[in-house]
Design goal:
The complex is a heterodimer of chains A (799) and B (225). Chain A is built from 24 helices and 23 strands. With 799 residues, chain A is an alpha+beta fold. Chain B has a six-stranded mixed sheet, with helices on both faces. A four-stranded antiparallel sheet of chain B has the order 2-1-4-5, covered by helices on one side. Chain B: GO terms for molecular function: ATP binding; ATP hydrolysis activity; transmembrane transporter activity.
Chain lengths: 799, 225
């Protein structure tokens, strides 16, 4: 029986090729997207799931309680030592400092080879907590000594070619010679740890400027020092957290708030905990999953509508089969089998498309999904569910319609429209498709609008003419000044400031405690630091609203603050702030407020403008130069900066970035989400279009006689085209009315994540409805025009 | 074999009720060949649909092989139909997407006959209908006469007790029509009961008895043999 079903299904596909093509193409595109979305979701859901004891691994995190809670994935350097030495909770504890891209030089051959791989400093137990396998060796003596490193296989190949990397050396940051003691298998892409070079923590402790990682220090959490622990068996993390609650009062009473908390974050939660950086909002995965589902739903609706409409052509077969003794359920199964076959073909094509487009998908959306994600039981299960689910979803309704056709009517060709499915059902389904597409387009418009708003608004500082250039560490003041003077000696350079960070263009700055006007207590909020020299505000175009800029001195005793600082303090007049004493981060800076700057967006639009101080760094801890250039001669300006910089630092790699690119970079995840939504909404409309084409084709065939009669009676082409449009117009109108509040609800909710957000204007709703209307008009015109201009004699004769 | 008593069937639209069968009664014995005649709209096809268990009567009794079947649900009717009744239609009603062989095989699939038995049985019937050489062709590749032979082959492949023929020669020329009538006669001689609806006096003469209908009622009954 099944063989018979497949045979007739295949022959029907061949017989009605255009219908099959519309169905298969729509479903294949839906499947292709669903598979890509599956890979995306799987990639994130399997993050770091290969560690053996991941249920016992925790990251220490800090909750800094001030006027609001700041969540930090870092901890004071003393915390891990206390946890390890004074308590018996942990089997292992390890610190890691991810220093980002670091200069690595290999002196092999005539010229030194320089690289900037992502580099972390880790304690030995790090690789005992996590299961990153070493090639050939175990970790018994790795990373215990200073100046040793473990590198990944890919990095070893890059640094040392085919020679064995063990005991080879490289130079870190033109200072320390590091010996390679182990090689790791290449790390998977879906891991939180994405360094390629792991240098022993002791190396950092023995190098310069390590006060910020002093083992007894409890001050500050913005040190990029993270700490992981593998708890002993049967430990209750809540009890441990209760114990850690006492630590702020015990180890660092005032000025730091005793309300700060240290917590244990379960390792599997890290990737999805959006309170901390480097995480992904799990909601995004579900939204993408929902979009994938809706794309398939649109394709299924096409299938249902077209199959139901086409069922009149199958009625004779149904009648004959019933006469020959077929039961309803047998007929239902037959049509389900047919749908299954079409679904299977579409799935195979969809699979092929997704494999084909995976590299493009990865490149376009800056992802790193692998084909390996398609070879596992999870994917097999997903495919099986997709195949069966879609076959049932798409095949059931047409199957029921066909199976219930009365044989007597079918054989006499006396079926009415209601025998081939309710027109109300068809209208509801078509409207649902339009709703989905309109919602998706509205989403694309709102996301795009918000990104544009965030990246093109006046941020209160200049971004378009500023180039940020990195600085090597360990520079002396005199060296910095010489470099600055050399750079500024060009007509293409307008201003230069040596600084720690730019005014904005970052999500996580250094927030610290502040004491104002000698008050007995520190303020209940953190102040964000912007360290820079006396040219900082001029270079970045920050406006003074009161007082003056600080003057270049050997000591730091003059500080600028922003307007929000005054508001937070309760002083609304900037002038009143002038001359008041201010103490920042314990005794790190003690001085007087000499100026108040106009508020600028010191972080992205997710957060509100924070209280900010601007002052020179007492310990000259600068890491960047901000250069205001003449944009008309960008090329020359950049050449000049590079020339000066490389003459000064011949052993380092020159790198720069435009500040406005950094601003855009802050919205990378939004850009990625926008690109994905844009692609999926385009596909949704395309699949919609296929469905409209299929339905209009059917209606045109059905109305041939009516068109002929109307033409004979003097009907104009436009009137006849109206026959095919009017239903769609009404449905699109209804869809617009349904889609607009749904989209408004979700997009308004999405915008609530931003402190500064764009307006959802009326045109955001009108444009998508208009787009769908025009598309439908074009498709219906294409099919309808031929019917409307055909010779009525022919159409009537053919009837 | 068949006994209908006071059989009634109405067709209703929103405003009008049309009587298709009006207290119709007659019997058909096993092995009989009965022709039903009458003008268009007299209820012949409605009667045939009810006799073929494709439609329900609105009143009266229909006893098939000693069993009252008028209250049967669709599943029971389908079951009874596929084991006992073969159909031959004016427009052949072959499935266009299936070959000759597959069309004839279909009733055997629905009655659950095993594949090897099906093959033997289909071959046997196609030989008998002299259409074996066309077994791999599709219906639209055959002439009308050949298509009706295939339809007859399909009707008899399950060895039904009863064949219902609805104007079986209506779409055929006289030569092909006679061939089909000869086939039906032969089947009848081999013991199959045949009820045939026809407009053709010529075809009706092949039967044993002619029932003439008008307005849903039997008006005359002529026994020919």
């Amino acid at each position: 029986m099944i063989k018979n079903y497949f045979k007739i299904a295949w022959r029907n596909i061949r017989k009605r090729k255009s219908v099959a093509l519309i169905n298969i193409l729509g479903l294949a595109l839906g499947f292709s997207c669903a598979i890509l979305i599956f890979l995306f979701i799987q990639f994130h859901l399997t993050f770091d799931n290969f560690h053996k004891d991941s249920d016992r691994i925790y990251r220490f995190v800090s909750e800094v309680h001030r006027d609001h809670i700041a969540y930090k994935s870092t901890v004071p350097p003393a915390l891990p030592n206390v946890f390890k030495n004074d308590y018996n909770y942990a089997e292992k504890v390890a610190k890691i400092i991810d220093r980002g891209e670091q200069l690595i030089t290999v002196n092999s051959g005539a010229t030194p080879q320089r690289y900037k791989p992502r580099t972390a400093f880790v304690e030995p137990d790090f690789f005992r907590i996590f299961n990153f396998p070493l090639i050939d060796k175990d970790f018994s003596d790795e990373l215990t000594a200073p100046n040793t490193a473990i590198i990944t296989r890919e990095m070893a190949k890059k640094l040392f070619g085919d020679t064995s990397p063990i005991n080879q050396t490289f130079i870190w940051d033109n200072k320390d010679t590091i010996r390679v003691t182990g090689v790791l298998k290449d790390l998977p892409k879906n891991t939180l740890i994405n360094s390629r070079v792991f240098i022993s923590f002791k190396t950092l402790q023995t190098s310069d400027r390590t006060s910020w990682i002093a083992t007894e220090s409890w001050t500050g959490t913005a040190t990029s020092l993270q700490c992981f622990t593998l708890l002993r068996l049967n430990q209750d993390p809540l009890k441990i957290e209760q114990e850690m609650k006492k630590w702020p009062a015990k180890y660092h009473p005032e000025p730091v708030s005793t309300e700060d908390h240290y917590k244990l974050q379960p390792f599997p939660d890290i990737h999805f905990d959006s309170r901390y950086s480097n995480s992904i909002n799990i909601k995004l995965l579900w939204i993408l999953g929902a979009i994938g589902f809706f794309l398939i739903l649109i394709a299924c609706i096409n299938f249902i509508n077209i199959s139901a409409a086409q069922s009149v052509y199958r009625s004779k077969e149904v009648g004959v089969r019933k006469v020959l003794g077929s039961f309803k359920d047998q007929l239902f199964r037959q049509f389900l089998t047919e749908t299954f076959l079409i679904t299977l073909i579409a799935l195979i094509i969809g699979f092929g498309l997704s494999v084909l487009f995976l590299p493009f998908f990865n490149n376009t959306f800056n992802l790193s999904l692998s084909k390996n994600g398609l070879i596992n039981f999870r994917f097999a299960g997903f495919i099986a569910i997709l195949l069966i689910g879609v076959a049932i979803l798409a095949g059931s309704y047409p199957g029921i319609i066909l199976a219930r056709i009365a044989p007597v009517l079918a054989l006499k060709r006396k079926l009415t429209q209601s025998d081939t499915g309710s027109s109300l059902t068809r209208k509801i389904l078509v409207t649902s498709q339009f709703v989905i597409s309109i919602v998706l387009i509205i989403a694309v418009l709102v996301i795009g609008k918000q990104i544009k708003y965030a990246t093109s608004s006046d941020l209160g500082y200049d971004t378009s003419t500023i180039v940020m250039v990195g600085l090597p560490e360990t520079l002396e003041q005199a060296q910095l000044n010489t470099l600055k003077n050399k750079i500024v000696q060009s007509s293409n350079i307008k201003r230069v400031s040596i600084c720690f960070t730019s005014p904005g263009a970052q999500t996580d700055g250094w927030g610290t405690d502040v004491n104002f006007n000698g008050n007995p207590k520190y303020e209940k909020f953190l102040i964000q630091s912007k360290m820079g020299d006396e040219d900082y505000i001029e270079t970045f175009g920050i406006q003074l609203v009161a007082g003056r800029n600080f003057i270049k001195k050997d000591s730091v005793d003059e500080v600028l603050v922003n307007e929000t600082f005054g508001t937070k303090i309760g002083i609304n007049s900037p002038e009143e702030l002038l001359g008041k004493p201010i103490k920042i981060s314990d005794d790190y800076i003690q001085g007087r407020i000499v100026g108040v700057v106009k508020d600028f967006y010191n972080q992205d639009f997710h957060g509100t403008i924070s209280p900010v101080f601007i002052a020179p760094a007492p310990d000259l801890w600068y890491n960047e130069i901000g250069v205001k250039i003449n944009r008309k001669n960008t090329k020359e300006a950049l050449q000049h900066i590079e020339q000066q910089w490389t003459s000064y630092f011949p052993n380092f790699i020159f790198e720069y970035a435009f500040l406005n690119d950094r601003v855009t970079e802050m919205y990378k995840s939004e850009q990625q989400f926008l690109s994905l939504t844009r692609l999926f909404s385009f596909l949704a409309i395309f699949i919609d279009g296929l469905g409209i084409y299929g339905l209009v084709s059917f209606f045109v065939a059905q109305k041939t006689k009516e068109v002929g009669i109307r033409k004979v009676l003097g009907g104009r082409v436009i009137d006849i085209l109206g026959l095919f449009f009017k239903d769609f117009f009404t449905l699109i109108g209804i869809a617009g009315l349904i889609a607009s509040p749904i989209a408004w609800y979700f997009m308004n909710d999405w915008l609530q994540h931003y402190a500064y957000r764009t307006q959802i204007n009326w045109w955001v709703f009108a444009l998508p409805i208009g787009c769908v209307l025009v598309l439908t008009l074009l498709i219906a015109s294409y099919k309808g025009y031929r019917a409307a201009t055909a010779n009525p004699v022919k159409s009537l004769r053919s009837e | 074999m068949i006994k209908i008593t006071d059989l009634e069937k109405y067709y209703r639209t929103e405003e009008v009720q049309t009587v298709a069968l009006n207290k119709l009664s007659f019997d058909v014995r096993e092995g009989e060949f009965v022709a039903i005649m009458g003008p268009s709209g007299c209820g012949k096809s409605t009667l045939l649909n009810i006799l073929g268990l494709l439609d329900d009567p609105d009143g009266g009794s229909f006893i098939f092989n000693g069993i009252e079947v008028s209250g049967f649900n669709e599943r029971k009717r389908a079951n009874l139909r596929k084991h006992n009744i073969g159909f031959v239609f004016q427009s052949f009603n072959l499935i266009d997407e299936l070959t000759v062989y597959e069309n004839v095989e279909l009733p055997l699939i629905y009655t659950g006959v095993k594949a090897t038995d099906r093959k033997n049985r289909v071959h046997e019937v196609l030989e008998k209908m002299q259409i074996m050489h066309r077994r791999n062709h599709f219906p639209q590749q055959l002439s009308g006469g050949q298509q009706q032979r295939v339809a007859v082959a399909r009707a008899v492949v399950n060895n039904p007790k009863l064949i219902l023929a609805d104007e079986p020669t209506g779409n055929l020329d006289s030569s092909n029509g006679n061939e089909v009538m000869d086939l039906l006669t032969e089947l009848n001689q081999q013991g199959t009961t045949i009820i045939m609806v026809t407009h053709s006096e010529h075809d009706a003469k092949f039967s044993h008895r002619i029932i003439r209908m008008l307005d849903g009622q039997k008006v005359t009954e002529n026994v020919l043999v």
